[in-house]
Amino acid sequence: MKDLLRQNGLYQSEFEHDACGIGLYADIKGRPSHDIVKTALEMLARLDHRAGKGSDGTGDGAGLLVQIPHDFFNSVCSFSLPEAGQYGVGMLFLPQDHSKRQNIIETVKNIIKEKNYTFYGIREVPVLAESIEPIARQEAPHIVQLFVGGNDQLSDSLDYQLYTLRKTLEQRIGKELYIASLSSKTIVFKGMLCAEEVSGYYTDLKDEQFVSAIALVHSRFSTNTFPSWERAHPNRMIVHNGEINTIRGNANWFNARAKTLDKDYSNQIIDRDGSDSAIFDNVLEFLTMNGVPLAHAIMLMVPEPWEKDQDMPDSLKAFYEYNSRFMEPWDGPMALGFSNGKQAGAIMDRNGLRPARYYVTHDDRLIYSSEVGVVDLDPSQIKEKRHLKPGHVLLVDTEKGQIIPSDQLKKEISETNEYAKLLEKSITFVKSSLDKHQSTSYRDRLDRLYLQKVNGYTYEEVVKGIQVMSETGKEPVGSMGYDAPLAVLSERPQLLFNYFKQWFSQVTNPPIDAIREEHVISKVTWLGKQPNILEPTNSDTKQIKLEHPILDESQFETIQNGLLPVATLSLTFNVNDGKAGLKQALDALFQEAEAAIQNGHQLIILSDRDVDAEHAPIPSLLAVSGLHHDLIKKGLRTSASIVVDSAEPRDSHHMSALLGFGADAIYPYMAFEAIKDLIKDGHLNKSEAEASQKYIKALVGGIVKVMSKVGISAIQSYRGAQTFEALGLSKEVIDQYFTGTFSQIDGIGLEEIADETLKRHTTATKEWVSKRVSPLDPGSDLQWRQEGEFHKFNPMAIYKLQQAARKNDYGLYQEYKTLVDDSPYSTIRSLLEIKSNRQPVPLDEVEPVESIFKRFKTGAMSYGSISKEAHEALAIAMNRIGGKSNSGEGGEEVERFTLDSNGDNRRSAIKQVASGRFGVTSHYLSEANEIQIKMAQGAKPGEGGQLPAHKVYPWIAEVRGATPGVGLISPPPHHDIYSIEDLAQLIYDLKRANPTARISVKLVAKAGVGTIAAGVAKGLADVILISGHDGGTGAASKSSIAHAGIPWEIGLAEAHQTLLLNGLRNRVSLEVDGKLMSGKDVIVAACLGAEEFGFATAPLAILGCVMMRACHLDTCPVGIATQNPELRKNFTGSPDHIVNYMHFIAEDIRETLSQNGFRSLEEVVGHAELLKVRDSVQNHSKASHLDLSKMLVQTAEQGEKCNFTTPQNHELDKTFDFREVLPQTKAVVERGETGQFNFNIKNSDRSAGTTLGYTVTTSTNGVGFEEDALELQFNGYAGQSFGAFVPKGITMTLTGDANDYVGKGLSGGKLIIKPNENEGTPDDNQAIIGNVAFFGATSGEAYVRGTAGGRFCVRNSGAKVVIEGIGDNGCEYMTGGTAIVLGHIGKNFAAGMSGGTAYLFNESGDISQIANKVNQEMVNIETIIDLDEQKEVKELIEKYAHYTGSPKAEKILLHWEESVTQFVKIIPSDYELMLSTIKKLESQGLSHDEAAQKAFELKKSGHITVDHGDPNYQPA
C-alpha cells in the first residue's frame, strides 16, 4: 500500500526540508591532530538533540568533513601513494549488488584512463554495520575510496581536474554512483546515521593516525524519514543549518548565467535533484574552482544588507552593489560552515535567523557551533566568546595560522577592484519625475472602460482597491475569510493570476517582518544585460538601476526612449484564430524575443496596448513565465530584461506573481489611468503624482509582504523564485509555461485559459463597437452581492443557520444543510460525495452524539478580536458538550479558570501560543488540556497581526500584559521558531510547562504541508491541525484572504498520506478547520484523514454575525468583533445556540454513517476511497478538467485503521527537571518551604526549571512562592530555554554559559547568569547567553553578566532585565517591563516597541552612536530626568552588581552622579503618552482603573495625541 501511495499520492520529494546542528573545530595554526577529529565527533554527539530520528530510531543523517590524513592512508593502503597534495581521494557510495558495483568501478577506471589521469587504487572503507539502525543498514551503500592523480599536461589545478572528473563520472554513470567528496584536500564521512553512530560506523575515524587540523560536523533534522545517505551533510564544501527560500530562482538564474560562459558547462554544474544545501554547495564549488577566492564567493552568495547601512564603508557598499548586478542573494535562514581544506569559516544570513556561537582559546583552537557546551574547555583557556553576527565573516586561514578579522577580510576583498568607479561607468539610475512630468490620458474614456472590461476590472476593485491604495498607500483590508468559489470552479471568467496561490513560510523557515525589520529588505532592480559571472569587472555592460520594479509613467517613458536597446513585442492574439490562437501567439512571441535579443536588444517590453476588436490580450503572467523559461533554456535570459506594459495587473498579487515568475519591471498603465479618472470624477482628492506614488507605495509594500512571508528579503532573490503553487491548471500548461511550479491537482489547459480571455473580450467588444459600454460589473469577490459571485455564507444560508440554532429546530437545519451541500461548486469538497458499498446500519447502532462531540472544537479567536460575551459563549458551549474551545492568542482572564456558580465553565480547554505570546504565563499554560502552537492562520498565513490602539481597552491590556490605548503587534514569525528543530524545542518547552497537556501545532494548507507535518510529528507534537485557506476570522489584506494558502482538502490529504508513508500517522491526531458548515464537510474531512474538527465562522454566524467583513474597525453592530461596551449590548448570542448547532452536526454525521454502513466516525478516518467525484462535475466547463485522483488515492485496506493509536513518547522522565530538579525539590515544594540546591548542567539539559515552575504554579494556584524561596545554583553549559516560564519564588543562578531562549516566558522568577571566575577572557563583553532571550517574558527579574545574541527581550511585557550587551533587534515588539543594557547594542533596536522602557549606558557620550542603531519609528530617545526613575534604575544596577559581581556595574555605581547622565532612555511615544495621562488623572483623584479607562477614552476620541498630551486638549 505504501508503494502505491508513494507513486500515486500527493507526496513529492521536492517538499523535503531539513535543519540541523552544525559545528566547526579547527586548529588555527594548521596543526593536524587526532584530537581535532575525536573532539569534532564528540561535538557531533552533543548536537544529537537537534537532529531528527525516524519512527524506528533511524537517524536523519550525520557526518563530518576533515582534511585528508596522508600518513594514515599511506599506512593502510595496499598501493603506493605520491606526496601529500599530489593526489585526490574520492568517497564513493556504490550499490550493494556486487556485479553492478564492479561495472561502476570499471567505468570509473576507464574514464580516468580516457582523461590521462593516474589511477592509484580503490580501498574498501571499513565499516561496523551492526552499530547502526536496521533501516540505515538496509539502505546503506557499499563505500569505497578512490585514489587518483591528475594529468600533468594540463594547466588546470589538480582540484579542478578532480572536479571535472567527478562531473564526468556523475553524468556517465548516473544515480547508481554518489560521490560524497573527491578532492586533494578534504574528505567527507557521512550517512543516514545518528550523530553518535558516525564514529562507530566509520572505524577509520578512531585510528590515532587519522589526523586533521579542520573538522566540519553536521547533525540533520529532516521533515521526512525516508532513508537517504546522499542527503546527509557535510556536502563537499559546506555544512548548512537553515533553508534557502529562493532556491528555485537561484538555480534557474545560475543555469542561465552558466550557459553564457565560454566553457561548455551545459547543465552539469547544478544537481537539480539535490537539496537546497547541495545546490548552494554546487555553485560555491564552481566559483572557487574557477578562481574566485572562498571568502569572496561566500560574500557574493550571502551578501549582508548593504543598501541602508550608514556605517558600511563606501568601498564595501560599492562591492556589494556592483556584484548584485549578476548575483542575487541566496536568501533564507542560514548558519553556514565552509571549508576548502586550507581555510574554514562560517557566516550567517542577513537576518541572523540561526544560532551561531564561537570560542577562541589561548592554545589557538576555534570552536564554532549551533550551541555552546559541545566541547569541554578549561575556563582559563578561553580567550574569546562571541556570537556570529549577520554580516560577520568568520575565517580561519590555517596556512597563515590566523583568524582573519572580518572587517579586514571584507576590506581586502572589496578593494580588489575600484567598484565605485565601475558603477559610475556602467549604471544609470532612473528615478521618478512624475512631479515634473506632463501626463496624458491613454485613449479616450470609452476605450479605457472597454480595456478595463476586457481585463476583468470591477467597480469593487477600482473603488475598494485602487482608490484605497491611492489614498492611503496601503492595501485594503477585509475580514471573515474567503467563501467565494476557487477560480477553477467559478462560473465567471477568471484572470490567470487567480489560479496561483502564494506560498508562505511555516515551521521550516520563518517569515520576515518587512515593516519592523525593513533594514534588511532590498527592492533594488537592475535592467539590461548581466555581466559575466566569472569575469564581471572585465565587462563594460551597461545597466539601468531602479529603486523598485514598479514603473510610473515618467520612468516608463524614460526607459522606452533608448537608454538601452529596446524591443517592444505585442502581448495579444488574434481572436479570429479562436482558442488555438493563444498558443500560436505565444510561440511567435518567444521567437520574436529570441530574435530581438540576438540582434542586441537588452530590454524586451511586452505590451498589450494594441488590444482591439480583433486582438485579445495574452494573459501577462502566461507570457512572462513562458518567455522567462524559454530564454533560460536558450541561454539568453541574462542578456535582456523583461518589462511588462499591461492593462491587466493592478493589485499586489498580480505584481508579485509577475515578478515571481520572471518579470524584471512592470508598468500597470491601466491602473494609473483609473487613478486619473478617479481624480477627474472627484473620488480622489490628490494630485495625479501624489495618488500614483501612493498607489505604487501600496503595490511595492504588498510585493514586499508577499516575498517576506516566504522568508525572502530581496526582490532580486524573489524574481523568478516561483514561490507560488498552481491550483486548477493542467500539467501540460505547468510544464511548458510555469516549469518547476508545484501543482497538486490537474486542471484546465491552454484552450480553457484562452476561452476565459475570449469571453471577457467578446462581451466587452460587443458593447464597444456599439459605442454603448456599460459601467463596470459591481464586483463581488469578497463581499456577497445579489446577482454576483456565489458565496457559501450568503444571507439565506446565514438566516437558515441562525434560525435553526436559535429555535433548536433540526428540520430547519436540514433546510440549511441542503442549501450548503447542494450549492454551486465552490470548494473541492463540493465536488465530492460519500459512497459506500456497505449495507446501511440502524441509526441506534451508530456511536452517540456525546462521543462525536469530543472531536469538536471551536477555532482560535482571541479575546481582543472578539468580545468577552462571544469568547465566553463559545467556551461555555464547548465545555457543556465535552468539546474544546480555543483561547486564541490574546491570553485569558484568570477568573475564567474557576467554575461559575451554575456549573458553567468559561475556561478555554485549548490555550494558544502564537507569535505575540500575549498572556502566555506559567499559570495560563498550566490551565490547558491542550496547548496549540499557531504557526499560521488561514486568513493570512505567513503574516503577523496587529491589535490597533483603539481596540486595546483596559481589560484587554490587562490580559495581554500591555497598556490601554497602545497598539499591539504580533510578529509574522515566532521568534523562537526559525526551523523545524526550533519547533521541536518549543514543543519540548511547552510539554515541560504542562506535562498533562497535549501539544498541538496549527499549520495552513500548502503544497508540502505533508512533509512539514511529518517533521512536526517527529518533533513530538500530539495533534496537527491543517487549516484551510478559506477559513480565518481575522482581519487581513484582501489579497492575502483571496490568494494565500490552498483548500484544506488537499493539505489534509497530503498530510495524512505523508504521515502514513513515514510511519508516523498513528502517533498524532489530525485536525482540520476552514469553513466547515455541515455534517458532510466533517465526513469528507474524516475520509481524508481528520479525526478532530474545528468550527469558527459558523459559530460566529450563530452568535449573530452578519458578515459585515469589517471586524478590524471595532464597529461590529452585533457585539461580536468589538470591545465597545455600547455595541456589546447588542450581542444576542447564547451558548445554547452553539450547543444546538453542534448537536445538529453530530446527528447529521450519525445519519450519514448509518446510511453508509458505519457505526463510528473512526471507521472512515483516512478512507478516501469512500469519496467519489459527483457525476454532474463532468458538465462543468472547468471543473470537469480537474483530476483529484492523487487526493483520493486509497491509503488503507478496507476496514484497516489509519488514525491515532499510539501516544508520543515525550520521554519526560529523561528530562533534566524530572531526573535532577524535582527529586531534590519535591518535598520542599509540597511543604511550601524554602531551600537551596546545586546542580551541574550541560548543553543537552534543556528547559531547566520549567517543570519545577509548573509544580509551583499548580500547587499555589498561580500565585507562586515568596521571592527566593527556591534557590537553584547551576554550573556548566545550560541547554536551550534555561528558566523558561519560571514563576515567582524560583531563583536560578547559572555560573557558566547558556544557549538560546533563556528566560522564555519568564513568569515572575529570577535568573542570574555569570561567567566562571577562572575564565581567561579579558572583559565581560563576551557572549554568555544565546539568541531570543526573555522572549515573551511577562514578569520577574534577570541579571546577565555578559552579552546576549540577537532579538533580546522580544515581546517582553513585564520582566526587568539587566545585561552587559546585546545583538541586533533588541527589545523588538516589547510592550512592558524594563531592559538595562550597560554596553553594546546591535542594529534596529526597539523596532515595533510599543511599551516598557529601555535604558542604554552610553559611555562615549556620543548620542549618534545610539541613535543610528535605534529604530525610531515608535520610540523617543530621552535622558533620565525624573529622580524616582533614576533611583529605580540605580537599584536595578545595584542588584546586578550584587548578584553578578560585574566590574562595569560597580564602576557605574561608584561614579553614579556622572553615570546617570550617560544613560539614554528609550520609551515608546504612545506608551509614554498613556502613562503620563494616567498619572495626571490619578493626581486629579481618580483610581488607577478609572484613570486608565478615562485615558483610553481620551486617546480613542483623539482628545490626547502624541503631540498633545493634555487631557483637556480639544481636537480641531
Automatic annotation (TrEMBL):
Domain of life (superkingdom): Bacteria
One annotated GO biological process: ammonia assimilation cycle
Span of the signal peptide: none
Cofactor dependence: [3Fe-4S] cluster; FMN; FAD
Pfam families given in the database record: GATase_2 (PF00310), Glu_syn_central (PF04898), Glu_synthase (PF01645), GXGXG (PF01493)
EC number: 1.4.1.13
GO molecular function, one term: metal ion binding
InterPro entries in alphabetical order: Aldolase_TIM, ET-N_metabolism_enzyme, GATase_2_dom, Glu_synth_asu_C, Glu_synth_asu_C_sf, Glu_synth_centr_N, Glu_synthdom, Ntn_hydrolases_N
SUPFAM superfamilies: Alpha subunit of glutamate synthase, C-terminal domain, FMN-linked oxidoreductases, N-terminal nucleophile aminohydrolases (Ntn hydrolases)
Keyword terms of this UniProt record: 3Fe-4S, Amino-acid biosynthesis, FAD, Flavoprotein, FMN, Glutamate biosynthesis, Glutamine amidotransferase, Iron, Iron-sulfur, Metal-binding, Oxidoreductase
PANTHER family: FAD NADPH DEHYDROGENASE/OXIDOREDUCTASE, GLUTAMATE SYNTHASE (NADH)
Family, similarity comment: Belongs to the glutamate synthase family.
Protein name as catalogued: Glutamate synthase large subunit
Organism: Terrilactibacillus tamarindi
Classification lineage: Bacteria, Bacillati, Bacillota, Bacilli, Bacillales
